[in-house]
Amino acid sequence: MNKxxxxxxxxVLIFTQSENNEEDGVFIxxxxxxxxxxxxxxxxxxxxxxxxxxHCKKLAPxxxxxxxxxxxxxxxxxxxxxxxTVEKELAQKYEIxxxxxxxxxxxxxxxxxxxGRSKDDIVKFMKKHTGPxxxxxxxxxx
Length: 142
Prior knowledge:
The structure is a single chain. The protein has one domain (about 20-130): Glutaredoxin (3-Layer(aba) Sandwich). It contains 5 helices and 6 strands, in the order αββαβαβαββα. It has a 6-stranded mixed beta sheet. The chain has helices spanning about 1-20, 35-40, 55-70, 90-95, 120-130, and strands at about 20-25, 25-30, 45-50, 80-85, 100-105, 110. By secondary structure, the chain is of the alpha/beta class. The protein is about 45% helix and about 20% strand.
């Protein structure tokens, strides 16, 4: 009986570690999953960062708060990050010159993010790029 419990616990531990693709609400992109996930998401804001960077550390809680708010939308909006100290090829491919660099990946296009670094700025930007294509007119908005 103990062997079965240990085996089940080991399986659960291995499975949860391999599926841990988020950090504080932000999806973690790697060289292995980047193309697949960016295409799957359709639209995602990617933060290219280095863990030692002071500006990155300052942005982290705002970015995380934005990620959590955006996930509550219907449909959910996912924002992502790439650790450039680990994923050097991605940093080179997307010409990352400084940290943090934010880029919007939208339907195969890459757009530099030059907006504010607060949660509200990020959420507003993402809503603008993921909102409905058309707005239903009614007596309140026409």
